[in-house]
């Protein structure tokens, strides 16, 4: 049953995976906003409940995986263990709490959900490149923000919370640069350079996906050309007749 839910292609399995990605996004949002809250019983209770839910998810995926040793050492699964440990150890080792932001890497699992959406929803088939670019940019944004907070929150008085680090990352990535938060040492300045170069490249990819003319992905059986106009009847490269399913459009 677990294997059908996590890896199946039924409507029930797809709804289950949609629920998982919604859960990941909700948890990420909670981590961002809770980073600015002082420790209190409600925060600790929510952390404990999230830890239990993540343990259950991890155990289920471990149970159905046929190569269990490989599963344990996969980077995303190791990150899950780190996040679970920080949730449990948060009340005792407060400096570890910033590692919880690594939960944003769970968004990389959305590729399976996007595959389900492409199969069921025409909108996502048309804009799959846009969806992929948005996911990549979001993951980069939140992971780099975690690094900024980790490296600067002790030495830089202007970065006192995860929200400050997120604000600096966004203003740097968009080249806005208000100047109210700046890096004080060489490591911080090098990190800002990485944000500007890599982040701006991802941002340009997103813009390219938004304004690029719409194409349909359908591999030509003769020449292998993958992208065609939505109303294409023949392949532009070799002239092969293309039976592109257009759903009556």
Give a brief rundown of this model.
This protein has helices spanning 2-7, 11-34, 41-64, 68-73, 75-89, 110-120, 122-126, 128-152, 162-173, 186-211, and strands spanning 216-217, 227-228. It has 249 residues and is mainly alpha-helical.
Kindly report the oligomeric state of this protein: single chain
The total of helices stands at 10
How many structural domains?
3
Strand coverage percent:
under 5%
Find the count of extended strands (DSSP E, 2+ residues).
2
Approximately how much helix is present in the residues? Answer: 55-70%
Low-confidence stretches: none
Largest sheet: 2 strands, antiparallel
- Report the radius of gyration as a whole number of Å: 22 Å
Mean pLDDT: 78
Global structural class: mainly alpha
Distance between the termini: 38 Å
Q: Would you list the SSEs in sequence order as H and E? A: HHHHHHHHHHEE
Question: What overall geometry do the principal axes of the alpha carbons give?
Answer: flat
For the biggest β-sheet, the strand order reads: 1-2
């Amino acid at each position: 049953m677990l294997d059908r839910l996590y890896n199946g292609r039924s409507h029930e399995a797809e709804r289950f995976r949609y629920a998982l990605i919604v859960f990941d996004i909700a948890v990420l949002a909670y981590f961002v906003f809770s980073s600015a809250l002082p420790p209190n019983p409600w925060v600790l209770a929510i952390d404990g409940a999230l830890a239990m839910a993540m343990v259950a998810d991890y155990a289920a995926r471990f149970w159905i995986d046929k190569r269990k040793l490989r599963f344990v050492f996969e980077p995303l699964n190791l990150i899950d263990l780190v996040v679970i440990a920080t949730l449990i150890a948060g009340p005792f080792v407060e400096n570890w709490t910033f590692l919880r932001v690594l939960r944003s890497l769970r968004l990389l699992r959305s590729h399976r959900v996007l595959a389900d959406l492409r199969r069921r929803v025409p909108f996502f088939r048309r804009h799959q490149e846009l969806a992929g670019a948005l996911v990549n940019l979001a993951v980069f944004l939140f992971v780099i923000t975690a690094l900024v907070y980790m490296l600067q929150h002790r030495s830089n008085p202007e970065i006192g919370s995860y929200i400050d680090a997120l604000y600096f990352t966004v203003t740097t990535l968009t080249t806005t640069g208000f100047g109210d938060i700046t890096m004080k040492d060489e490591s911080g300045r090098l990190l800002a350079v990485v944000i500007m170069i890599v982040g701006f490249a991802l941002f340009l990819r997103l813009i390219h996906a938004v304004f690029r003319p719409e194409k349909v992905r359908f591999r030509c059986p003769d020449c292998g050309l993958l992208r065609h106009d939505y109303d294409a009847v023949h392949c532009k490269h070799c002239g092969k007749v293309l039976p592109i399913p257009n759903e009556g459009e």
